[in-house]
From TrEMBL:
Class in the EC hierarchy, top level: hydrolase
Domain SGNH hydrolase-type esterase, first and last residues per copy: 75-330
Species annotation: Streptomyces tamarix
Gene3D superfamilies the UniProt entry points to: SGNH hydrolase
Keywords, ordered alphabetically: Hydrolase
Alphabetized InterPro entries for the sequence: SGNH_hydro, SGNH_hydro_sf
Name of the featured protein: SGNH/GDSL hydrolase family protein
EC number: 3.1.-.-
MF term (GO), any: hydrolase activity
Stretch list, region Disordered: 180-203
Pfam families: Lipase_GDSL_2
Length: 342
């Protein structure tokens, strides 16, 4: 049996329903979201696909119901905020905040796995109307925009690349080709269809360009979060999420076993190697901090905070981006302390 299966057996259930490309739940506008009404001992979702968060005495809540009557706090972001890696709903970051570290108000899990900042914002605009009064929003994010920024301009477009975008554009090109043949070159409204566009730039940006692209997109959409939060009377904080190699250069023993196994079956180093260094994180964080200060949004880089709170053998990550149960609890406690959450 693999080290990953032995050390993190819960990841098999995430892989079964949340990793399998054949089970992707394609959605209008969002592109994709989690399976709805999913039930297991590891992860449970509501009628819309939002993960349940758990508070004191096992109380649960989610965006799609049940909802608390009074003010709530939102924990938004992508897969780390969703809680990939947690062995049960009660171990995710919003659950640990609600049940232990900042329990004065319920916390709702408002995260979308594999979402970029465009999708995170769009998810909020689509389902904000369901929420009761929102007191606070913590947007725990930042990696996906940077990770996707190395893709060429042909798939980044104006709003940034998204996961599975090559599948999307490939299918759309096939559809366009079929329609062009079947319509005899005529458009939807009878006009002459335009010829296929010339090949576009497929150059991979260098590291400095990736950081510029990732920070610009993140801050652009954060400014819209800011306007929405202000209109709701909610306090907004942006937290740059951690990456294992941004926290420390030498992983814990269990992490080393898992990372080496994952590297043997994936291309993490090839895809993310240039942005996974401490220096890249420092440059990216500086750009985000400057932008947040300019727009008046509270900012926290969680990486140095976590680094200062752990020993070299503390096992935090099930892969380079997602936490163990102990990692979730540690980070939730640090967030409560750093952000003054009660």
């Amino acid at each position: 049996m693999s080290h990953r299966a032995t050390l993190t057996p819960q990841m098999l259930q995430y892989a079964e329903k949340f990793d399998d490309r054949g089970d992707i739940r394609w959605m209008p506008y969002l592109m994709y979201f989690h399976a709805a009404d999913h039930r297991s001992e590891v992860v449970n979702t509501d009628r819309l696909g939002f993960r349940l968060s758990e508070g004191p005495n096992g109380q649960t809540a989610s965006v799609g119901g049940p909802l608390p009557e009074g003010p709530v706090r939102l924990f938004a972001g992508s897969s780390t905020s969703f809680g990939i890696g947690a062995s049960a709903d009660r171990h995710t970051l919003p659950s640990r905040l609600w049940s232990k570290h900042a329990p004065s108000l319920p916390w709702l899990n408002f995260a979308g796995r594999s979402h970029n900042s465009t999708q995170e914002l769009l998810l909020f605009t689509l389902y904000r109307h369901l929420l009761p009064q929102v007191d606070e929003i913590v947007l725990f994010s930042g990696f996906n925009d940077l990770g996707l920024s190395r893709l060429p301009a042909s798939v980044r477009g104006d709003s940034g690349a998204f996961f599975n975008c090559n599948d999307f554009y490939g299918q759309m090109e096939e559809l366009r080709t079929r329609n062009r043949k079947s319509s005899g070159g005529r458009g939807l409204f009878g006009g002459r269809r335009q010829p296929a566009p010339e090949p576009v730039d497929t150059r991979v940006p260098d590291l400095s360009e990736q950081i510029d692209i990732g920070s610009e997109l993140t801050l652009r959409h954060l400014d819209s979060w800011r306007l929405l939060a202000e209109g709701m009377g909610a306090k907004l904080t942006f937290v740059l999420q951690p990456l294992a190699t941004w926290v420390r250069e030498e992983p814990a023993p269990q992490e080393k076993l898992i990372f080496e196994e994952l590297d043997s079956i994936s291309n993490f180093g090839e895809v993310y190697g240039d942005i996974s260094s401490m220096e890249a994180r420092e440059t990216y964080s500086k750009a985000l901090r400057t932008g947040c200060e300019r727009m008046g949004v509270r900012y926290l880089d969680s990486n140095p905070v976590i680094a200062s709170a752990i020993d070299k053998d503390d096992w935090l990550f099930v892969d380079r981006i997602h936490f163990t149960d102990e990692g979730h609890d540690l980070v939730a406690g640090l967030l409560a302390e750093e952000l003054g959450l009660k």
